[in-house]
């Protein structure tokens, strides 16, 4: 039997956990290739090397070319490749994540398809945002109303803190530059947050589309989880940059978000919170170390790769 061509992928247990990685890197207008176990990015200024297994998410913007070898390395390293639009504010697609286990995915699917458990998780998400408030017994309508009041208050207080004028959130998906500096900064900041949260969701093996509060979109769960941190990280960064904008506002926002995400330990918190929401407070590493396939049976999981011709019912 001929050996499988190509470089064999790394063992999952040998890779850095998502919580130990650099949050994200944004690349546009360059050529992305591979040099041994590093990703190279080349443009008119030169070439830089990036250790692939140390990055949680690589955001690929417009005007770049990426090689097949580079994509192989990113996939083998468990780095989430996310294709985004200009200034990083539009999501197009993503590559394979780090986890090889479907344990969290199955828990997510079970919880979201039952009305009682879905409401319970949604209440828990709002409780995480409300800092000490009891959401027990609240309807979704009550939760949305309280969240709306909270968001208005935070926007108003943050505007006063940074001395900027705030009226309302105005975002045109097809015209990023059409908004004022503050709305552009908010769009860029939330885009970075979504990219990192998306990388964690995919890395853990969860479905980005199975949301508890949001629904009907292929990133519903990403928006659910990102909302846990948006008012804490993205909003202050956006208002802070918009208060003293430079020549390249989106780039300034991305750098500020990178620092805020690192200082706020978002990867660790996001991983922990997703496990808690889905009812898994045990060993968070086991999802990455497992790379086995079972067969479903109502009696319990059965080993794959076995001939069951003599199985007696």
From TrEMBL:
| EC numbers on record | 3.1.-.-
Task: Please cite one Gene Ontology biological process associated with this protein.
Answer: maintenance of CRISPR repeat elements
Print the keywords alphabetically. Antiviral defense, DNA-binding, Endonuclease, Hydrolase, Magnesium, Manganese, Metal-binding, Nuclease
Q: Could you tell me what this protein is called?
A: CRISPR-associated endonuclease Cas1
**What are the GO MF terms of this UniProt record?**
DNA binding; DNA endonuclease activity; hydrolase activity; metal ion binding
Subunit organization: Homodimer, forms a heterotetramer with a Cas2 homodimer.
Task: Show the InterPro entries listed in the entry.
Answer: Cas1, Cas1_I-E, CRISPR-assoc_Cas1, CRISPR-assoc_Cas1_C, CRISPR-assoc_Cas1_ECOLI, CRISPR-assoc_Cas1_N
Describe the family membership recorded for this protein in Swiss-Prot or TrEMBL: Belongs to the CRISPR-associated endonuclease Cas1 family.
What is the purpose of this protein? Answer: CRISPR (clustered regularly interspaced short palindromic repeat), is an adaptive immune system that provides protection against mobile genetic elements (viruses, transposable elements and conjugative plasmids). CRISPR clusters contain spacers, sequences complementary to antecedent mobile elements, and target invading nucleic acids. CRISPR clusters are transcribed and processed into CRISPR RNA (crRNA). Acts as a dsDNA endonuclease. Involved in the integration of spacer DNA into the CRISPR cassette.
Tell me the superkingdom of the source.
Bacteria
Q: Which gene is this protein's source?
A: cas1e
**Residue sites binding Mn(2+) per the record:** 147, 214, 227
Which PANTHER family does the annotation name? Answer: CRISPR-ASSOCIATED ENDONUCLEASE CAS1, CRISPR-ASSOCIATED ENDONUCLEASE CAS1 1
* Cofactor entry: Mg(2+); Mn(2+)
